[in-house]
Amino acid sequence: MEKTLYPLSEPLNGSIQIPGDKSISHRAIMFGSVAKGETIVSNFLPGADCLSTIDCFRKLGVQIDQQDTTVTISSEGFHSFKEPAEILDTGNSGTTTRLLTGLLAGSSIFAVIKGDESISKRPMGRVTNPLRKMGAIIHGREEAQFTPLAISGTKLQGINYTMPVASAQVKSAILLAGLHSESETVLQENVKTRDHTEKMMEQFGVDIKVVDNTIHLKPAGELHGRTIEVPGDISSAAFFLVAGAITPNSSIELKNVGLNDTRTGILDILQAMNATYKVTPQSVHSTEPVGTISIEYSALTGTTIDGSFIPRLIDEIPVIALMATQAVGKTIIKDAEELKVKETNRIDAVVTELKKLGATIEATEDGMIIEGPTPLHGGTIQTYGDHRIAMMASIASLISSDPITIDNYHCINVSYPTFFDHIEKLTTK
Ligand SMILES: O=C(O)C1=C[C@@H](OP(=O)(O)O)[C@@H](O)[C@H](O)C1
Ligand SMILES: C=C(OP(=O)(O)O)C(=O)O
Predict the structure, then answer these.
(1) pLDDT above 90 as % of the chain
(2) Which residues contact 224 (CB under 8 A, 6 or more apart)?
(3) Counting Cβ atoms within 10 Å, is residue 354 exposed (0-12), middle (13-18) or buried (19+)?
(4) ipTM of the predicted assembly exceeds 0.95
(5) Pocket of ligand 1, candidates 190, 194, 320, 389: which has the most ligand atoms within 8 Å of its Cβ, to mutate?
(6) Its GO biological process terms (predicted)?
(7) Same fold, 3-20+232-427 and 22-216
(8) What b-and-e string marks burial along 24-48, b requiring 16 or more CB atoms within 10 Å of the CB?
């Protein structure tokens, strides 16, 4: 279904509460299901991806009551998972697909995992290969490189593994497999990726140690239920950080933003591009720090984004590219070939769609080059069913000279169901 978005005649103003972090919401459901007893999750993200995770664990026999952003999980623990009678449908969620594969590889049940058309094209060998080295029995399309995956849970051995790709999903799949394996798992990351799994393992009392970029995980006994407060998602906040920075005379405040430093690459880039913003930490002592970010419209300059920055802002690149169209000079994004294996090929999608709006932007092998500033005009944008492309285009419409129409805007529900409510809140006096 299409949606037409009209340019703003006024600046953005006011304050919004950023919804729960998608990565942490997935993990909260998974750890709450593995743990024996009751886990209560607050500020859960009721986005389609996290609802897919809930659905899969219900099919594994875990009792999960979800009331909007509060989830109560009652579980008999990992060893009581029931063999599901149905296929576990992970929808559009790469995180659910990969982490669940890792977790179930070390269980004592048989399960089949499949997702939507986009998931069927995303690489799964990156998890099934190391899991097989741990002893996992996984069959799947093209030698288990793609879904559907059929997993016959079995006893696993720990692994000593150097990550060939900078991916928190691969790391987490291996750690979830290592949780119930017979020996220690040691993982080496060349480039650090988001560490929510490690932090949640620590919270649940698992013996996990991180020294520089090496993780040591000892097999765990029974985990016990607890309460988990999910911070707001900085990847969702990013759309409004950019909206505030590029819409003339705007001044907005984003509350409850997660500030884990494996996720705050966008803030470093805002600084490098001369944006005017301020971060006020709320709870510096918690394992997942949270704060309020205020941002104002200002003149921006181009920058280069590469290397170890990339995993710290990988999902923000579409909207950063939009911001770069309004910055003076060249913005170069490189080392970001991972964008090609997301919900869609995000290098192609961003370049093709921003070009339609008048941007000067070219794709490269591992990223893109944007030359700014260019005024944006209206047009019809294809989302490719990718929530982040749909939100990028919606933010572009705030500053375009004419309306922008996007197809399949419902895909935004994957990570930010209240996105349009928040635009409205910041645009009405
Ligand atoms: O672990 C996670 O929760 C995620 C890791 C990233 O994917 P990769 O691990 O494939 O880089 C990110 O793009 C995704 O949105 C969520
Ligand atoms: C890539 C994303 O998610 P996933 O890999 O979980 O589908 C995303 O949210 O941008």
Answers:
(1) 97
(2) 35, 36, 37, 204, 205
(3) buried
(4) yes
(5) 194
(6) amino acid biosynthetic process; aromatic amino acid family biosynthetic process; chorismate biosynthetic process
(7) yes
(8) bbbbbbbbbbbbbeebbbebbbbbb
Chain-centre distance for alpha carbon 106: 25
What are the sequence ranges of the domains in the chain? Answer: 3-20+232-427, 22-216
Question: What are the pLDDT digits (tens) for 142-173?
Answer: 999 999 999 999 999 999 999 999 999 999 99
Burial 7-21 (b: 16+ CB within 10 A, else e): bbeebbbeebebbbb
Binding residues for phosphoenolpyruvate: 22, 94, 122, 169, 346, 388
CA distance 193 to 211: 14
Pull the structure tokens for residue 151. Answer: 């997993």
Q: Is the pLDDT of residue 283 over 90?
A: no
Over the range 162-189, which residues count as b (16 or more CB within 10 Å of their CB) and which as e?
A: ebebbbbbbbbbbbbbbbbbeeebebeb
Of ligand 2's atoms, which has the minimum distance to the CA of residue 169? 5
**Ligand 2 contact, 94 CB (< 6 A):** yes
Residue type, 24: I
Nearest CA to ligand 1 atom 10: 167
Strand partners, 330: 371
> Which of the four CATH numbers 3.30.420.40, 3.30.540.10, 3.30.1490.10, 3.65.10.10 does domain 22-216 have?
3.65.10.10
Encoded amino acid at 392, one letter = M
Cα 249 to middle of ligand 1, angstroms? 34
Structural contact between residues 54 and 69, judged by C-beta atoms closer than 8 angstroms:
no
Is 315 annotated as catalytic?
A: yes
| Fold classified for 3-20+232-427 | UDP-n-acetylglucosamine1-carboxyvinyl-transferase; Chain (3.65.10)
76-124 pLDDT per residue, tens: 999 999 999 999 999 999 999 999 999 999 999 999 999 999 999 999 9
Cα separation, 222 vs 78, in Å, equals: 8
How many CB atoms neighbour CB 55 within 10 A? 17
Pocket probe for ligand 2: among 52, 126, 343, the residue whose CB has the most ligand atoms within 8 Å is 343
Fill in the amino acid letter for 384.
Answer: Y
For ligand 2, atom 2, the nearest C-alpha belongs to: 342
* Residue 140: φ, ψ to 5°: 180, 175
With tokens 């594994």, the residue in question is 60
Query: Which stretches does DSSP call E strand in 77-136?
Result: 88-89, 110-114
